[in-house]
Amino acid sequence: QVELVESGGGLVQDGGSLTLSCVASGFTFSEYSMKWYRQAPGKEREFVAGIGSRESGHSIFYADSVKGRFTISRDNAKNTVYLHMNSLKPEGTAIYYCNRNVFYGQGTQVTVSS
Prior knowledge:
The chain is built from no helices and eleven strands. The mean pLDDT is 97. The chain is mainly β. It is 0% helix and 52% strand. The chain is globular and about 40 Å long.
């Protein structure tokens, strides 16, 4: 079965950096687009970044709110997708989720202190 396990969250100061990881299993990782979503307290889950499959040439797309600050990447040999987050802001405080189609991981908490 599909399993997505996120890690790398934590507490960081305003302007700081974090890198999140998501290890996938249960499917042929390179054949699927992977995405990151986040859900802040009291808000709906929102798209953050996505990276296409090998067939798509690993096309990349970002939410406008994170463009220029976040970078998504993947290592197909390790079945892992990453989210490198720079210049974090307090409004970036949320649970960050890895996603493939309808599947989500358990999430990892990111807290940005002002």
